[in-house]
């Protein structure tokens, strides 16, 4: 489990460097609505309003949502302080789903 978590964090950093990540609430929300995001990471410790907003939007637009990580972990993975991160490429999204399914 810890190995998969570390691999997921490493892959997030790679996806960011490959510019296949959108981050920040407004940016990710817009990407969900335009259906240009394939997977959303939302911090476990996000506020209740933020959690509800992204849970509802992801459910409505049928975008997978993952809440396995804290804000600190997500921020360290991409090098920016963020609560929500969207993955825009389907290949990266598929790999994340494989890693997270192994947990």
Automatic annotation (TrEMBL):
- InterPro entries under this entry? Ribosomal_eL30-like_sf, Ribosomal_eL8/eL30/eS12/Gad45
Task: Write the protein's name.
Answer: Ribosomal protein eL8/eL30/eS12/Gadd45 domain-containing protein
Residues forming the Ribosomal protein eL8/eL30/eS12/Gadd45 domain are: 9-88
- For this protein, the parts annotated as crossing the membrane are none
One Pfam family name is Ribosomal_L7Ae
């Amino acid at each position: 489990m810890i190995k998969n978590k570390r691999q997921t964090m490493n892959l997030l950093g790679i996806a960011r460097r490959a510019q296949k990540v959108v981050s920040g609430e407004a940016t990710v929300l817009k990407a969900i609505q335009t259906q240009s995001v394939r997977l959303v990471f939302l911090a476990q410790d996000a506020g209740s309003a933020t959690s509800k907003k992204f849970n509802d939007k992801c459910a409505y637009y049928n975008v997978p949502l993952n809440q396995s990580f804290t804000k600190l972990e997500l921020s360290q993975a991409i090098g920016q302080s963020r609560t929500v991160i969207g993955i825009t490429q389907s290949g990266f999204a598929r790999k994340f789903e494989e890693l997270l399914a192994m947990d």
